[in-house]
Amino acid sequence: MPLYTTVSEILAAIQDEEEYLSDARQQMESDFGMIFLEDSGFEPEDSTYAEFVDPAPQNFFNKVVDGANRALIRIAIKMPEDSSDDDKSEASDGELFVFGALKNIDDRLTATQEPPLRESIVWHGACRGWMAIRCIVHVPDKKTDVAFDVVPWDPMHMTWKSGKNGLLWAAYKRWLSYAEAYTEYGEEIAEKVGESGAITVDWWDTEGNSIIVGSDFIKENEPHGLDHVPVFLTPVGSMPTVMPSVTGLKSNDQRNAIKHRGQSVLHAWRQTIGPHNEEVSFIMDVARRARDAPLLYETESGTKTLKDDPYGSFKIISLAQGEKLAPIPLPPTPPESEQILSVIQRGRLEATLPQPISHGGSSSPESGIALAIRIDQTRSVYSPRTEGVARVYSWLCKELILQTKKKAGRKNIPLSGFNSDNEFFRITMTPKQLDPEWFFDVRVEPRLPRDETEEANRFMMLTSSPADGEAGMSYETGREEILKIRNPAAEHGRVLREKAERLPPVQITALASSLTEQGNEEGARQVLAWGIQEGAIAPPEEEGAPAGPAGPAGPGAPAAPAANGAAPVAEEGSLEEAFVMLLDQIKNALMQGGIDENSIIQLLTPFVRFLDGEDAPTVEAIRALAQILVEAGQEELAQAL
Description:
The chain is of the alpha+beta class. It has helices at residues 7-20, 22-35, 56-69, 85-111, 117-127, 178-185, 187-193, 253-258, 270-291, 335-351, 368-407, 452-463, 475-481, 488-501, 504-517, 521-533, 575-592, 597-611, 619-631, 635-640, and strands at 72-78, 130-138, 147-152, 158-163, 166-176, 198-205, 208-213, 216-223, 231-235, 295-298, 324-327, 413-418, 424-429, 439-445.
């Protein structure tokens, strides 16, 4: 049973929370005005006085938003060390599912002229101090594709109530046009909204969703099929809920404190913007008066005036004896003004991005330590925003898996996008392949200046094994923590692949194949003959050689027992079944060794084609694969091959 069921109950609950959030909302509105230069932070005495508006708040806002938008985002499913190869493979596909769903979400948003999801929540975090999204996965009526309906909510226009297990309800006020209502909810609800549109309340609780216009439901509670509110919000920063005084339970102290939880980019700078603009405006007033200084015209009667501008070019002014024309001295800008501006400027620099990094960098070279100190100073500005994005995406990844599992049935879900290494992919998945228990590790790190030479030296030092001991750090950890490589396992696979490509048999065979493709058959034969003469590759098999898999002992030699206690290849079942079993074991071993899927496919393609009735793999292909297995520590499989 929902906590609130009638329109009056829902609106009363929303009104209570709006009063609780009133101070925070006023602050959001004030910050917006100063960021977008609509509010100087002070009121001049009247319209004749200057009102200076420093563009620094907007410049600072743009820099922080840009830096957070360009931050590296890494999404990975962490698996226990003892996980099976199949489990790791499924988790890898799960990561691709999430990347594909996120690409789908961004496409839906940009189609409505909205920024991509991350850019929207970064903007809200920088301006409002909170980040919020609503997520629904469903299959629209009369359609077959699964829809990932995720939209950012502006915290300025939302209210919520939390319990010990999460949100009890969340509401969002927005303008709903007739066309939007028709597209989202159908003709019946669109008629209730009206052709001119209306402000609506989008209400979500732990059981369903309803929409209110005025004092009526235009969409009564419709179950969403979940056991929680499909909304997530988080404040920017690490401040918990606090009550500033012991009377907080009976006063507005808690309401007054919540405005500090969501930290906009002006959080540490807000109180100095107005005084700065006011002081500069005062100096502008003094300068303007000095430019248009009044004149003192002394006459006997004191009633005579000058008709024209006495400062005109080649002006001749006639005065009677005893009359005097002189400028009235103006008070100069007090020296205290410079001191005040210096104090304000120092506070602004401490509250924003440090110079010179934020404004073009230093003209002189800096040591790695000096650069590291400057970088560390910027993290206090970027980290609250990037950590907020990481929290939002951590929740969203699990929510997408959970809702797809519950709501998409058995549908095939085609997805495409870019993975953590910015490589394009296409994949088709079903909800059955998804595991709600997957643990998502989401990291969002700003792109800051790095001393890459120092990082490389540190990596080499820590991963090198001393003569009498072991290395201080594994290659995988070093790639991830020091070199900041987003997918260290895939990088390890690339390293192994490049090592394989440098092996003489692989290089000679590749060179001969390239010459053949160019039509130079004679050159290819000479390269192969030279390779055979040098012993780099084996001579072609002679006709009539005994059948059987070729291995280190030569064509037709009996195969060694397979790894992991499997039955010998040539003893149990048919030769074809044993060969399939061996290839499956090799595939799993290569995946476990960090070889990426594309490389595995290339290595095993000649063997799969052999199973399909095509020519047997060449000795060079067998030896190349065996060498990679040896490099990966799979000597038994190499011998069996």
